[in-house]
Amino acid sequence: MGRTIFAYILGFTFSFVTIFEGMYVLSKLYPKLFRPISKSSHVLIGLDSLKLKNDSLGIMWEDTSSIGLEYVEAYKLDSLKSLYNEVFAELKRYKDSIVVLNKIVRNLEAEIRERDLIVERLQRQILNQRDDRIKTMAKIYESMEPEVAARILENMPEGEAIKIILNMQRRQAAKILSEISTAKASKLSSLK
User: Fold this and answer.
1) Is 168 helix (H, G, I), strand (E, B) or coil?
2) CB neighbours of residue 151 within 10 Å
3) DSSP sequence for 11-78
């Protein structure tokens, strides 16, 4: 449901922007294509022979049919049709480009998700390897004399030392902790 609404919003926004951009381009390329004559313009003075007509928006335009220039109207219409076809073709190219870009974006998003999964898996492997290393080190220190193990653990960074002690059997860990200085043992006991 959310994707459908999003698609409608995206379609409406794209249509609005492309129509607005098309009209802007037309106004820049052909500034005299539509030449409105405002009611307050000084051009109206002295143009008694020129007939003007109002369109549905209230804009006054020259009525060329009354002065024998029907072909001008036909030319304007043909020009507008040609311009419409050009703009429509350009919009179609933009639309095709957007479709291609959306496909590229979807592919890149899928690739990013894939890479994120790979990174997660590698991070888990690293954590597992660290845990295995700590367990192995704990077994090695368990097999040592408590005094020797205590001296080594006392010089180790506290975070690493506590991880090793927590992975030892309780009795051996207690023996080693009893050999460590009181200050260091109390620091290790307060770590999590």
Assistant:
1) coil
2) 14
3) HHHHHHHHHHHHHHHHHHH-TTSS--B-TT-GGGTT-TTS-EEE-TTS-EEE-GGGGT-HHHHHHHHH
pLDDT digits (tens, 9 = 90+) for 92-129: 888 888 888 899 999 999 999 999 999 999 999 999 99
pLDDT at 45: 44
Q: Where are the domains of the chain?
A: 1-31, 34-124, 127-190
Here the tokens at position 79 are: 């020009």
CA distance 65 to 103: 52
- Written as one letter, the residue type at 2 is G
Who's near 55: CB < 8 A, 6+ residues apart? Answer: 61
Half-sphere exposure of 61 (CA within 13 A, CB side): 16
